[in-house]
Amino acid sequence: MSDVQQRIDELVKGNRVVLFMKGTAQFPMCGFSGRAVQVLKACGVEEFQTFNVLEDEEVRQGIKDYAQWPTIPQLYVDGEFVGGSDIMMEMYQSGELQQLLAKA
């Protein structure tokens, strides 16, 4: 495992809810990242870890390999990849995301 993959793995496994995004929860730098933050807040998640991929090019590329998922944002809950903002929105609308996060 490369250094960047190990760093990502530690972030994912060391936090219950992690969102790799462009920008921060307070200042999202793209619409998809902003929507992902809004969905988490709508689910009642008050504390979650974010990682701004715009500040670290290695992680920005490495996270795509880590999950075998080509886009950002990426949500992880309890060490498992959940998906990007479209999947988060679909899961939210069906109630599935709230159930997953209630366990977290």
From TrEMBL:
<dbReference type="GO" id="GO:0046872">
    <property type="term" value="F:metal ion binding"/>
</dbReference>
<dbReference type="GO" id="GO:0015036">
    <property type="term" value="F:disulfide oxidoreductase activity"/>
</dbReference>
<dbReference type="InterPro" id="IPR036249">
    <property type="entry name" value="Thioredoxin-like_sf"/>
</dbReference>
<dbReference type="InterPro" id="IPR002109">
    <property type="entry name" value="Glutaredoxin"/>
</dbReference>
<keyword id="KW-0408">Iron</keyword>
<dbReference type="InterPro" id="IPR014434">
    <property type="entry name" value="Monothiol_GRX"/>
</dbReference>
<dbReference type="GO" id="GO:0051537">
    <property type="term" value="F:2 iron, 2 sulfur cluster binding"/>
</dbReference>
<protein>
    <recommendedName>
        <fullName>Glutaredoxin</fullName>
    </recommendedName>
</protein>
<feature type="domain" description="Glutaredoxin">
    <location>
        <begin position="17"/>
        <end position="82"/>
    </location>
</feature>
<dbReference type="InterPro" id="IPR033658">
    <property type="entry name" value="GRX_PICOT-like"/>
</dbReference>
<keyword id="KW-0411">Iron-sulfur</keyword>
<dbReference type="InterPro" id="IPR004480">
    <property type="entry name" value="Monothiol_GRX-rel"/>
</dbReference>
<feature type="binding site">
    <location>
        <position position="30"/>
    </location>
    <ligand>
        <name>[2Fe-2S] cluster</name>
    </ligand>
</feature>
<comment type="similarity">
    <text>Belongs to the glutaredoxin family. Monothiol subfamily.</text>
</comment>
<keyword id="KW-0479">Metal-binding</keyword>
<keyword id="KW-0001">2Fe-2S</keyword>
<keyword id="KW-0676">Redox-active center</keyword>
<dbReference type="Pfam" id="PF00462">
    <property type="entry name" value="Glutaredoxin"/>
</dbReference>
